[in-house]
TrEMBL record:
It comes from the Bacteria. This is Chaperone protein DnaJ. InterPro entries: DnaJ, DnaJ_C, DnaJ_domain, DnaJ_domain_CS, HSP40/DnaJ_pept-bd, HSP_DnaJ_Cys-rich_dom, HSP_DnaJ_Cys-rich_dom_sf, J_dom_sf. The keyword rRNA-binding does not apply.
Length: 371
């Protein structure tokens, strides 16, 4: 009787380990026991195959869930319930029954499992979000094996049709009154088995590589904008189509502007003399131009002045939003003797009509208090 070693023990990690920890543990052990590094050592070769089998199971969320619940029995035909169920195919049974309604594979032919999609988070400045940018990113990703051209078979050999499913990738099982078609447990839907796997990729048809990709960020992107690079995700096993790479953009906080959609907001403190007499202020925009904002005489603090077309570009569209300047009137704190003298003269000439809102407020207060 063959002793089955726990997959987590093989990879020397806890059952609660996350996917990154499991991958790191596997890479460390794979380097240690790789046949090329231990030529002629049967124990190392056996250990390498065992940890590869363990990682193949635990890196797949569905396989891992089945293993956590049923252990090795989840991958043995007829195990678990006495009724001929193979728990490794429970998700495939669901897919075969409901897949047509959920966009899954149709028909009974051999299916290729597409590579996983990947996510990359990129931080950019608001000025880069305004004008767009062309940049490059470097990612670690699985790519087709150059040694076997992604086939998974050693050079000079070819994969053979699976004897269990006769190359169809699926088998049928009787379940009560129903005949359910599910993924073949021997070839996992590939329809082929590799007797002599490629030593570089261990029969997977893909290896880990570092890739540098060019990314074009269009003008007008916002926080959370997603850019899709088709086919730049994980390579599919044994020549299956690759997944996609999704780049999620995060825009850094700007020292001057705040953004709401295509509108840019900025606060501008002005002197009380400019607010009283009028004038203009210059605001440098993200477009590189200086926008002159006119201040009308008697402008109050909190007023918003709108500059049409001074905001962010419309993403994948035409035109630009507006720039809105919130006015804040600053009271002077450092006065010369002459300035203080002039202000004193101004106060002595006040009649109350200069600031109608102020005088009106105190008039209402006196009325409300009966005075």
């Amino acid at each position: 009787m063959t002793t089955e070693v726990d997959f987590y023990e093989l990879l020397e990690c806890d059952r609660t380990a996350d996917a990154a920890t499991i991958k790191s543990a596997y890479r460390k052990l794979a380097i240690k026991y790789h046949p090329d590094k231990n030529a002629g050592c049967q124990n190392s070769e056996a250990k390498f195959k065992a940890i590869s089998e363990a990682y193949d199971c635990l890196k797949d969320p569905q396989k891992r869930a089945a293993y956590d619940r049923y252990g090795h029995a989840a991958f043995r035909q007829g195990a678990g319930s006495g009724g001929g169920q193979d728990f490794s195919g429970f998700s495939d049974i669901f897919e075969s029954v409901f897949g047509e309604f959920m966009g899954g594979a149709r028909g009974g032919g051999r299916q290729q499992r597409r590579g996983a999609d990947l996510r990359y988070d990129m931080e950019i400045g608001l000025d880069e979000a305004f004008s767009g940018k062309a940049t490059q990113i470097t990612i670690d990703v699985s790519a087709p094996c150059d040694t076997c051209d992604g086939s998974g078979a050693r050079a000079g050999t070819v994969a053979k049709p699976c004897a269990t499913c006769a190359g169809h990738g699926k088998v049928r099982a009787q379940q009560g009154f129903f005949v359910v078609e599910r993924t073949c447990p021997s070839c996992h839907g590939a329809g082929q088995v590799i007797a002599d796997p490629c030593p570089s990729c261990r029969g997977e048809g893909r290896v880990d590589k570092t890739k540098t990709l060019s990314v074009n960020v269009p003008p007008g992107v916002d926080e959370g904008t997603r850019i899709r690079l088709t086919g730049e995700g994980e390579a599919g096993a044994r020549g299956a189509p690759p997944g996609d790479l999704y780049i999620f953009l995060h825009v850094r906080r700007h020292p001057i502007f705040e953004r709401e959609g295509t509108t840019l907001f900025a606060r501008a403190p002005i002197s009380f003399t400019t607010a009283a007499l009028g004038g203009s202020i210059d605001i440098p925009g993200l477009d590189g131009e200086v926008h002159s904002i006119r201040i009308a005489p008697g402008t109050q603090g909190g007023r918003e002045l709108r500059q049409r077309g001074g905001g962010m570009p419309v993403l994948q569209g035409r035109g630009r939003g507006d720039m809105v300047i919130r006015i804040e009137v600053e009271t002077p704190t450092r006065l010369s003797a002459r300035q203080r003298e002039l202000l004193q003269e101004f106060r002595e000439t006040e009649t109350g009509d200069e600031c109608p809102e102020t005088s009106g407020f105190f008039a209402k207060m006196k009325s409300a208090l009966g005075g």
